[in-house]
Design brief:
Elements: E1 2-4, E2 7-10, H1 22-32, H2 40-45, H3 59-71, H4 76-96, E3 104-107, H5 115-124, E4 129-132, H6 139-152, H7 162-167, E5 171-176, E6 185-190, E7 197-199, H8 218-226
Parallel strand pairs: 3-4
Antiparallel strand pairs: 1-2, 5-6, 6-7
């Protein structure tokens, strides 16, 4: 996201898959037998004397690159440092692209609790001022809450509170949606005195409120006009006119 004079002027999401992201680092560290949460991964990466290029392709290719590196006897600390560098390369090639970065960059997301990743950004963006957000793991949620507060502007919130939700009698049921070939397994959550919520669909059929109710359109009105003089109970078949050339 790019801001100018306090306003968001541009943003870009990661178009690549999980490769080079925090979750990918966690998965790769686990296969290497190194913990990310206690700082072992960063400490190991800092002992590397050099790094190698693991690429910026999808997670499957990068996983194979890590496997090949291990088979070739590349030191564990070198692989760790290279994985940290992959975060920066993914960001610059897949997210930034041809965009121009500002002078100050704020690093958000739980991945920046990993000091090796933070160091990799400092190394790659030496001419920039990098700021690691204090509450980096929930900075996005905090921003969304502030935006919601602005929209509400003193209106009464419908939020029931976490304690109310935790102590309520919540019932979960699962069913398969057969509206398309995806055959999604949908979970319905029902809380007393509240509309049911759904999750598990690959589309927004059950994720959006408009997906549950059938709304009439102009096509439905046309259907009524076409068959307004037809009565199924009469047993007569409707008369259909087909335009053609004489």
């Amino acid at each position: 996201m790019i801001k100018k004079n306090g306003l968001v002027v541009d943003y870009q999401m990661n178009k690549a898959c999980a490769a080079g992201t925090g979750s990918f680092i966690d998965e790769m560290a686990e296969t290497l037998g190194v913990s990310v949460k206690n700082g072992d991964f960063a400490r190991l990466a800092f002992t590397a004397k050099h790094s190698i290029d693991l690429g910026t392709k999808c997670a499957a290719f990068m996983s194979q690159a890590v496997a090949n590196a291990r088979q070739e006897g590349v030191a564990l600390e070198v692989i760790a440092a290279s994985l940290a560098n992959s975060i920066v390369k993914n960001y610059l090639t897949k997210v930034v692209g041809a965009r121009k970065l500002g002078r100050r960059i704020i690093l958000t997301g739980a991945v920046f609790y990993n000091d090796a990743v933070v160091s990799a950004f400092h190394q790659e963006l030496k001419d920039k001022t990098l700021i690691v957000a204090e509450h980096r793991e929930v900075s996005g949620a905090i921003g969304a809450a502030l935006l919601a507060k602005e929209v509400m502007s003193g209106k009464l919130s419908k939020f029931k509170g976490f304690r109310t939700v935790v102590e309520s009698d919540c019932k979960l049921t699962v069913f398969n949606c057969a509206k398309c070939d995806n055959n999604c397994s949908i979970t319905q959550m029902k809380i007393p005195d509240a509309k049911p919520t759904f999750y598990g669909s690959r589309c927004d059929r059950y994720d959006s409120e408009t997906g549950h109710s059938i709304k009439e359109t102009a096509f439905d009105e046309r259907e009524k006009l076409l068959f307004r003089e037809y009565h199924a109970e009469s047993g007569e078949k409707p008369l259909v006119g087909i335009p053609g050339r004489w």
